[in-house]
Design brief:
The protein is mainly α and 228 residues long. It has eight helices and no strands. Helix 1 packs antiparallel against helix 2 and helix 2 packs across helix 3. It is globular. It starts with a helix and ends with a helix. InterPro entries: JAMP.
Length: 228
C-alpha cells in the first residue's frame, strides 16, 4: 500500500540523515570522513578483557577503545536514528492515518523501540564479530529474506513477479543488498577481478524461479495453513 511505502521511505530518510549527522560529528568534525585507529585483530575490540593484574592481586581498569571510533560510532548512529524517528515518524503517521487502521498506525514505531535496544546489545557484545562477519551476514540475509518473501508471495514464475510493482521493488532492493555484500567482501581491490562478481547478483532469484516448479511453495503454504 502507499501508506507502507511512505513509511519505508521515511525510515530510509531517517537512517540516511542519521548516518550523515553521525559522520559530521565524528572526528574530524564537519567532514564525511572518519579518522580511526587501525584494526589489527579481533581482540582490539575487547580491550576490557585484557586489563592487567599486577602480581595477580588487583586488576587495573585501564580499558580504552583501541578501534576508536568504530565501536562507539555505531551507538551514536542508533541514538540519532531514534531521535529522528521520534521527531519525524509521528508526523508521517498523522498525515497518512486515514490509510491505516488504528492498530497499525504506530506499529513501525513500536517495532523500532524493540529493535534499537536489541541492536545496541548486539553491537556492545559482538561488535568485533560483526565487524569481521558483516559482509557475509549481509549476503546470507539477502538470500534468506528473498527466498522467504518470494515463497510467502507465492512467486513461482517470471509472470508472477511482474504482476505487482511491489514485488519488483522488493527484488531490486534485495539485489542492491546482495551487490553491497559482494562489494564489502571483495573491497574492489582489483577491479578487473571483482567487478565481474556483480554479475552473480541476479543468480539467486533466477535459481529460485527456475526451481520453484519443483518445490511448489504455494502447495507448501496451503498445507501448512491446513495444519499438515
Amino acid at each position: 500500500s502507499s501508506s507502507a511505502f511512505l513509511q519505508h521511505i521515511t525510515a530510509l530518510f531517517e537512517c540516511s540523515i542519521a548516518a550523515i549527522v553521525t559522520l559530521l560529528v565524528s572526528d574530524p568534525v564537519g567532514s564525511l570522513h572518519i579518522r580511526s585507529c587501525k584494526v589489527k585483530k579481533l581482540s582490539d575490540w575487547y580491550t576490557m578483557l585484557y586489563n592487567p593484574s599486577p602480581d595477580y592481586i588487583t586488576t587495573v581498569h585501564c580499558t580504552q577503545e583501541a578501534v576508536y571510533p568504530l565501536y562507539t560510532i555505531v551507538f551514536i548512529y542508533y541514538a540519532f536514528c531514534l531521535v529522528l524517528m521520534m521527531l519525524l515518524r509521528p508526523l508521517l503517521v498523522k498525515k497518512i492515518a486515514c490509510g491505516l487502521g488504528k492498530s497499525d498506525r504506530f506499529k513501525s514505531i513500536y517495532a523500532a523501540l524493540y529493535f534499537f535496544p536489541i541492536l545496541t546489545v548486539l553491537q556492545a557484545v559482538g561488535g568485533g564479530l560483526l565487524y569481521y562477519a558483516f559482509p557475509h551476514i549481509v549476503l546470507v540475509l539477502s538470500l534468506v529474506t528473498l527466498a522467504v518473501y518470494m515463497s510467502a508471495s507465492e512467486v513461482e514464475s517470471f509472470k508472477d513477479l511482474l504482476v505487482r510493482k511491489k514485488r519488483l521493488v522488493v527484488l531490486f532492493s534485495h539485489w542492491l543488498l546482495h551487490a553491497y555484500g559482494i562489494i564489502s567482501i571483495s573491497k574492489l581491490d582489483k577491479l578487473e577481478q571483482d567487478l565481474p562478481l556483480l554479475a552473480l547478483v541476479p543468480a539467486p532469484a533466477l535459481f529460485y524461479l527456475m526451481t520453484a516448479k519443483y518445490t511448489e511453495p504455494s502447495r507448501i503454504l496451503s498445507e501448512g495453513g491446513n495444519g499438515h
